[in-house]
Amino acid sequence: MRLKLYNIPVVILLLLISYTSVAQTNKTTREDYILKYKELARKQMKISGIPASIIMAQACLESGNGNSRLAVEANNHFGIKCNNSWTGPSILHDDDALQECFRKYNDPEGSFADHSDFLRYRDRYAFLFELPRSDYKAWAVGLKQAGYATNPQYAELVIKIIEDNKLYELDREEMVAVESPAQIEKEQTVDIDHYTFTVGRRRYSRNGVQYVLARENDSYENIALDVDVKEKRLRLYNDDKEGKAELKEGDVVYIMLKQSKTVAKLPMHIAEEGETMRGIAQRYAVQLKYLYRYNRMKAGQEPVAGQEIFLNAKKARK
After folding, report:
1. CATH, residue 273
2. 146 shares a domain with 66
3. pLDDT digits (tens, 9 = 90+) for 119-160
4. How do residues 235-250 score in pLDDT, each as one tens digit?
5. Which domain holds residue 289?
6. What's the pLDDT band for 183 if we cut at 50, 70, 90?
């Protein structure tokens, strides 16, 4: 039987309705999304110390349960943008502005790992790792306070996803012993009874390197006299051979040669706006020349905000 011409629009309409219905049916549900990726969240919890409940809830929220364009086309489940240091593949997508650059990953695991690095190696999130891993509410509020998202209801949204789906159970199933980046950087007092040069300056240790803290109106000359180390050598220890650095109260001054690398527990640092390579070298007790070498940078070159600064020999990201 031949289809009459006036029936064609009706047929097209029916086809469109059918297609829309199938497309909606093919959308991943939150339950299925959690089931698919909860093991990735657990894996990242063991590596980074971030609660799996937080990782999973953020993924649900940021990716629309895996249905967003970024998740589908770029395996980007957390909406992480490119920033100036990103050299991997990317995708343009409208967000706060039109056609912004977002990171593109080979697989979802790359996105989950990058999210963990994003939080673990940035200064402004370091305090989160001092919170109990079981306190998902404190983590959610802390993320908002640290500026992770602009939505004023972000913490409440994350908490609701966790509680509605009992994601807190993911945090209880395994013991995780990951040292906080904030804890790694805490100053450790050295037993000065084992040293002959005390002269009233309290000594600390970072990355196995002894240091003292500068006082008000202090100088390398004064510190050199106190610790019985020549001023020229003291400046060498602190990557100030040219003698240009001026001390402020509370500045770290190393009294022995810094290490060639940092502890393996903290393999990199993500630079913030205005940070310098020397400042990063001082923070982690690593010689500046090695930082330049590991990051394939020229002497005098400074990092850009968001740049990954490797603190050990640079390794290719999987």
Report:
1. 3.10.350
2. yes
3. 998 888 988 998 888 899 999 999 999 989 889 999 999 999
4. 999 999 888 888 999 9
5. 268-310
6. low
